[in-house]
Amino acid sequence: MIPMHILQYVSLFSKTSETFVYDLICRMEDKGIRSTILTHKRVNADQRPFPRCHVAAGSRYSPGRALQKIYNLHRIEKASRCAGVIRALKPDIIHAHFGDSGARMISLLNRLDMAMPLVVSFHGRDVNVLPKYDRLYKKIIVQASQNENVVFVTPSDFLKSKLLALGVNEEKIYRIYNACNPAFCDTSFVRSYASGSRLKVLSVGRYEEVKGYEYLLQASDLLRKKGYAVQVDIIGFGSMEGALRRLIKQKELDGIVSLKGRVSHKAIPDIMKGYDLYVQPSVVTDEGEEENFGVATVEALCNGLPCLVSKIGGLVEVVDDGISGMFFEEKKPEDICEKIIHIMENDFLIAQYSQNAKLIASKKFNAESIGDEWVDVYSGLLS
């Protein structure tokens, strides 16, 4: 392997919801690739330590509104600090995480007249939403795809197809799945369910519109009315927490549905072992945001949790319908309800789906092999 030093540009390092970014950087360290973080704000340092971080502090920006101005005269201080880090470190490659960070880095490198190898990772809103509201952002990304020093990476074929629809050069796009943290891969644990007992359901995600939790709550209400005993726990946080709690109260779901709030990511593998089923009721929002991969769903599969997911976006690449779980139509609580009843009345499916999930997901989202794919991308830019 070619010795290399990667400058990992992450605007906020490391957000609670961006475990996959932190895990990737640490995985590269394990493979002998030295990384240094360039960020505008360091958060969660106690839970996600990293020895080499440069903080180019500055006023907060809004990607949708300020993207075009991020490196104009009003932002020169921050740009100068970033440029100073790049010049001092002389990294072999810069890896910008998320498209908006990539656009800012592309603009900076152009201004500095630096032809430095650049990897840009895309994850969702940076493809589905931002291009609709910022034409300059879209132009920067499309033009950069013609640059021999730039490559793009998406975590799903679904998101790759969205980039292609924007006009991005197909030859510059790599699809690399997000890897599952090995802590979730416990092959010794055996899951089973006895028909007639209370089904314990888990979901993990932000309390935001795109996650579709209102439909899971509605499905829980339907199950209660039909006489099926379920316990639904949702781990997460977000702007819709108040609305979800009001819906729980309105439908008298206390004791059936519980919002568990924030939970340490390290604790989740063991927590998952106490559940029978995982449900991800994500939706496509009016803005165009949708689930482009489903990290929590992958973690559930690797943990041996059968998964019911909306038939949208990248989720259909993660779950094998009828093998490791089932699909349901988005925004259809009746369909969620029917799929859960089917599993409760065919209790052998829990053990069957669980075993399949562990076998398939642990191979498909294997951290070691996916790490090798990233090494190949980095090495290809330097060859």
UniProtKB/TrEMBL annotation:
SUPFAM superfamilies: UDP-Glycosyltransferase/glycogen phosphorylase (SSF53756). It comes from the Bacteria. Residues 197-358 form the Glycosyl transferase family domain. The keyword Transport does not apply. Residues 18-182 form the Glycosyltransferase subfamily 4-like N-terminal domain. Pfam families: Glyco_transf_4 (PF13439), Glycos_transf_1 (PF00534). Keywords: Transferase. Signal peptide: none annotated. The keyword Transport does not apply. GO terms for molecular function: glycosyltransferase activity. InterPro entries: Glyco_trans_1, Glyco_trans_4-like_N, Glycosyltransferase_grp1. This is Glycosyl transferase group 1. It comes from Chlorobium phaeobacteroides (strain BS1).
